[in-house]
Amino acid sequence: MKDLSNYRKSYEKSELLENQIPEDPINLFHKWFYEAEDLNAAEEVNAMTVTTIGLDGFPKARVVLLKKFNEEGFIFYTNYNSEKGKAILNNPNVCLSFFWPTVERQIIIKGIAEKTAENISDNYFASRPDGSKLGAIVSPQSEVIPNREFLENNLKQLEKEWKGKEILRPAHWGGFLVRPVEVEFWQGRPNRLHDRIRYKLTNEYDWKIERLSP
Q: Is 179 considered catalytic here?
């Protein structure tokens, strides 16, 4: 067994204080997101971990890409028939998390997911490269398949079928909007005395701001 007890780092790049934050977590998310982007805090700054409660009762986390955020919440796209999609449709309580190590920041979002309107999914699907569109159609996401050639052969067939045509979004593929009910901002600090500020939704519009012990 490899001993990792000496893997340590001191976090000293910034601070998170109550007198420096907005009343709305979306505004703070916006600030942190674009600071992370400007400072190249990650190769894909919009990469986030989505955790769901599966049909088997176990939580499962995987990395997907955030495609839009606004005052309503956070949008990503997936196959609704995938393990992830089925889990969300069965239990819409999900968790999103971002970790940007270069700026020593983490954001954890608890929220309730719902399908986006069909026109939103259509518009995003239409913006994708043709290869990505066909990939969404050809892949029975999360299903057991015999081998790699199964996907590649089916893709070749689809390329012939759709050549010269507009590739339309399949009904089983689209977006989820996660409406946040709790957002925690974590800023690394020296001596493991990290800053943790939590926003909790108390009604439709108001957020309660609390500091958590690290």
A: no
